[in-house]
Write a structure and sequence with these properties.
This protein is an alpha/beta fold. The protein folds into two domains: 183 residues, Flavin prenyltransferase-like (Rossmann fold, 3-Layer(aba) Sandwich); 205 residues, CoaB-like (Rossmann fold, 3-Layer(aba) Sandwich). It is 37% helix and 21% strand. Bound molecules: flavin mononucleotide.
Length: 407
């Protein structure tokens, strides 16, 4: 364990949730490692976990009483709330398919699941299960949902499972779990001092006073970006059009409606930001003459005359300073890499995130997308399925890299 990690864990209050998996033996080592690093560890075991290992084992390893009961607990009458308030972080290792399913479904029927529901701290899951359970679409869906809700995961490589089979589902090594805990407790503040503008959501272009043209963007990518940037210490200016998600805490929200309003907001804020990430789905066309009132219904066919909207990203590319980092998003459904590379050059961008939201399991309203992050060198680039939260992390790693290179 690095000195830095030791410093992060020292005196931190960690609830270790232990569930009924054969990988429970690794939880013993994890308890010892966290305790040795100076963390105060309170173990909460599910009933199934107590069938595989005795609470006394974890009491001895953690140096604290082990909690197993929601009712009649020696911790008091509200052990779930008391532990949730006490904890700086909750880590569930091993996490069974069952506990993931319960949390994803909002079930709180024992101490651990109720405690997780009451938690405001980070929750890290280290799943462990047989490959058949891991590959079950219900488990995949539960993990996708939990990630989208901000729960963290640390996963192991495929390999030999404690049950004797080989495949996916093996719990991460203890060192990986300790690292994930350290990361959740003290993310690297590598965006500290930077002002980052993120555009999110979709624009709405009025047809008349009750109707508009728009698209299917949910705003989830912009949300993931804003969360990640805030977590890493940036001040975020969040310019959002219509969206199906609520802006994250701690950002400066600028609400806009149409592409024209988004253009005005972006160009107004541009001089004061260090980084601009244009993740919003901005309309390319708008009705030429929005009408007053409501267009009356008629049996006659109707033509809507559309005119192109201004290209906000290209305008920002023209006005940018050399010290700013400009990131565009390119939504492409075929020839994605070439189309995005052309956009990067034409619009004077540092990076472009190309994504295909209409591919299966990708995009609109989902927590995952098929995407690639490109700079001028696109050699070997290809789209891959990635959680929007991981895409945000990778993108800001690249932004940090660009700024470091520039000195
Ligand atoms: C010996 C044994 C090992 C098990 N290992 C796992 C496992 O690694 N992962 C898993 O999801 N379930 C495993 N199970 C099944 C769970 O214990 C079962 O789904 C239980 O209801 C989980 O309860 P809990 O999530 O409240 O601990 C195992 C069961 C047995 C009998």
């Amino acid at each position: 364990m690095s000195d830095d990690l030791g410093a992060v864990l020292k005196d931190r209050k960690i609830v270790l949730g232990v569930t009924g998996s054969v990988a429970i033996f690794k939880a013993c080592e994890l308890t010892g490692r966290l305790r040795r690093a100076g963390a105060d560890v309170r173990v909460v075991m599910t009933l199934s976990a107590t069938r595989l290992a005795l609470p006394d084992l974890f009491r001895s390893l953690s140096g604290n009483e082990v909690a197993t009961e929601l009712f009649g607990s020696s911790l008091g009458s509200n052990p779930h709330v008391d532990l949730a308030v006490w904890a700086d972080l909750i880590v569930v290792a091993p996490a069974t398919a069952n506990v993931l399913g319960k949390v994803a479904a909002g079930i709180a029927d024992d101490l651990l699941s109720t405690l997780i529901m009451a938690a405001r701290s980070a929750v890290v899951f280290a799943p462990a299960m047989n490959t058949r359970m891991w590959e079950n679409p219900v488990t995949r869906e539960n993990m996708r949902k939990l990630r989208g809700l901000g729960y963290r995961f640390v996963e192991g490589e495929a390999g030999w499972l404690a049950c004797g089979e080989e495949g996916k589902g093996r719990m991460a090594e203890v060192s990986g779990i300790v690292e994930a805990i350290g990361d959740a407790l003290a993310p690297e503040p590598d965006l500290d001092g930077l002002t980052i503008m993120i555009t999110a959501g979709r624009t709405e272009e009025p047809i008349d006073e009750v109707r508009y043209l728009s698209n299917r963007s949910s705003g989830k990518t912009g949300l993931a970006l804003a969360r990640e940037a805030t977590r890493r210490g940036a001040s975020v200016v969040y310019v959002t059009g219509a969206s199906s998600v609520v802006p994250p805490q701690g950002v400066e929200v600028v609400n806009v409606g149409s592409a024209e309003e988004m253009k005005e907001a972006v160009l107004r804020e541009l001089p004061r930001v260090d980084v601009l990430v244009m993740a919003a789905a901005v309309a390319d066309y708008r009705p030429s003459e929005p009408l007053r009132g409501k267009i009356k219904k008629s049996v006659e066919p109707m033509n809507l005359s559309l005119v192109p909207t201004d290209d906000i990203l290209a305008l920002a590319g023209e006005r940018r300073r050399d010290d700013q980092v400009l990131v565009g998003f390119a939504l492409e459904t075929q020839g994605e890499i070439d189309a995005a590379a052309a956009k990067l050059r034409k619009k004077n961008l540092d990076l472009v995130v190309v994504n295909n939201p209409v591919a299966p399991d990708s995009g609109f309203g989902k927590d995952e997308v098929r995407a690639a992050i490109l700079d001028a060198d696109t050699a070997g680039a290809e789209l891959r399925r990635v959680a929007k939260s991981d895409l945000a992390k990778e993108l800001f790693d690249r932004v940090v890299g660009i700024r470091r290179k520039r000195g």
